[in-house]
C-alpha cells in the first residue's frame, strides 16, 4: 500500500488487522486471491465489491469462521488460524439480518449476548444500562424486539455488537433494506463509535456510504482492485463520483460479469 | 459454563414464550394417547408359535400340520414342558403357544369336548385377538374333517389365555407406541426446527462468530427439549396407567434410562436433520416425511411388522422406534429386566452414536 495511507484514520498507525497474502480456495475456485492490507486502529474501513467478489469470504476468515487456504491474518493481535477463540472474544459482529432474537425483549437480548461473551453480571448490568440510556430506549427496554421498527432494531443490534467493548467490529451490509434517513442516522452512530476508538470494518452495497469511510478497499474477483481514501481513489482514477469509480475499477479489472449488487 | 447457561436460559425463554409451541409440546401427547388408545385393526402373518403335544397321536399331528401349513404360524422351537413357555414369551421369541393334553385322540373318539389350550402374547392385543381367531378357524375346519373321517361326535374346544395382558386392552400396545412417537416428534422435529429458525433469522451466524463453541450451541439448544420430552414421557405413562390401566411391571429406573437413551437418539437425529436444512419449512418437511411417517407406519406401532413385505421388514429395522417399542413393551408389560433388552438397547445406542458423528461432521463442514 502507499506510504501516505498511514496518515489516514486519525493518524494512528497501530494495526488492528494485518493481512498478508491471504488466499481462500473452494476446490478450484479462488474466492480470495492472495490479498494483503492493514486496518488502523480507530479507522472506518469500507469493503466494497459486487456479490461474489470475495467480501464475505474475507470477513469470515477474519472473524475466525473460515480457515484460510494460504497466508496470514492477524486480528486484534491474534492469528486467526491459531487462536480463533481469542479472535472471537476480541471482535463484534453485526450481520444484515441484525441477528437479534425477535421473541426476546431488548433487555433479554442484551443479557443474552453479554452472557455468551462471558461478561460479568455486574459489568453487564452497567453496560446494558448505559447502552439503553445512550439509545434513549428506556421505555422500550421490556418490549419484544419483534414490536420495534427496523431502524431501532438496527441501532440495538449495533450497540449489542460493541457491548463487550471489542477493539474491532465487523458490519456486514448493516444498512440493507433501511430507508435513507435511518441509514444516515446509523452512519452517524458508526462514526461516533469510531471516534471513541473502536475500529470498524464495514461492507456495503451503497456507493454513497463509501464516502463515510476513512479508506475503502474495492474487491473484484477475489483481488483488491483499489485501496485508498475515497478522495484519493477518485482522483487516482480521474472520476468524480463513487459510482463511476466503482464501475471503472471493476471494469478495468477485466470483469465482465460482475454487477454491483443493487 | 456460564456462557453455556446463558444460552440454555435463552432457549427456555423461546419455548415458554411461544404458546403455539407449548401447545404442541404438551397438548399433542395427551390427545394422541387418547385417540390412539382406541383405534386400528391389523392382520398378522408368520407368527412364531410353539406347540406342546402331550398326546403325540395321529389326530394331534394332523392338527399341528394344519396349523403350521397355514400362512399365519411358523414353528419356532419345540419344548418338553409348560414351564418353558413363560420364558419364551418373556424373551419375545414366541407369541403363541398351543398345548394338546394327554390322550387327546382317545378322548375325542369317546365323543366328549376336548380342549386345545392356547396361550397368546397379549402385549399386542390386536395381534393376539387375531392369532386366537385364526387358530379357532383352523380348529373348526379340523373338527369337520375329523367328524367325517372317524365318524365321531367329539368336539374340539379352544381354551385361550392371554399372557401379559389378560383383558387384551388396546392401550397396552398404544402407550409404548405413543411414547416413541411423541419423543420422536418433540425431540427430533422441535430441535431441527429451532436450529433451522436460528439459521433463517441470522442469529446462528451471530452465535458462530461468538466465542461459544459449536458444541455449546448445539447442547444449549438441546437441553430444554430433553427436559420437556422427559416430562411428556412421564405424562403419557401416567395417563396410560390411570385411564387405560397399563401396568409397569418392570423396573422404573431401567425404563427411565431407556427413555432418556431414546430422547438422546431423537435429538441427535434432529440435529442431523437440521444440518441438512436451512429453513424452518425444510426442517419441518424433512422431519415429517423422513422421520415421523416412516416411524408411525414401519415401527410396528400401527401395522404389525410380521405382516409387512420382507423388504419393508428390513427397512423397519432401520426405524429406531421399532427397537424402542420392543424395549418399552418388554419392561412395562412383561416386566423384563436389562438382560432381556440389552440387544435393542445396544442398537439404539449405536444409532445415537452414528447420528451424532454425522451431525458433528456436517456441522464442521458447514463452518468451513
Structure description:
- The complex is a heterodimer of chains A (about 260) and B (about 375).
- Chain A has a single domain, classed as P-loop containing nucleotide triphosphate hydrolases (Rossmann fold), CATH 3.40.50.
- Chain A contains nine helices and ten strands.
- In chain A, helix 3 crosses helix 4 (about 120-135).
- In chain A, strands 6-7-8-3-9-10 form a six-stranded mixed sheet, with helices on both faces. In chain A, strands 2-1-4-5 form a four-stranded antiparallel sheet, with helices on one face.
- Chain A is an alpha/beta fold and about 260 residues long.
- Chain B is of the alpha/beta class.
- Chain B folds into two domains: about 1-35 and about 170-365, no CATH class; about 45-165, abc type-2 transporter like fold.
- Helices cover about 70% and strands about 10% of the residues of chain B.
- Chain B has helices spanning about 1-15, 20-35, 60-70, 85-90, 105-110, 125-150, 170-200, 205-210, 215-245, 250-275, 280-300, 310-315, 320-335, 340-365, and strands at about 45-55, 75-80, 95-100, 115-120, 155-165.
- A five-stranded mixed sheet of chain B has the order 2-1-3-4-5, with helices on both faces.
- In chain B, helix 3 links the parallel strand 1 and strand 2 (about 75-80).
- The two termini of chain B are about 25 Å apart.
- In chain B, about 45% of the residues are buried.
- The model of chain B has no long low-confidence stretch (mean pLDDT about 80).
- The interface of A and B includes residues 104, 112, 115 and 116 of A.
Summarize the structure.
By secondary structure, chain A is α/β, with parallel strands linked by helices.
Keyword list:
heterodimer, A: 262 residues, alpha/beta, Rossmann fold, 6-stranded mixed sheet, 4-stranded antiparallel sheet, 9 helices, 10 strands, globular, disordered C terminus, B: 368 residues, abc type-2 transporter like fold, 5-stranded mixed sheet, 14 helices, elongated
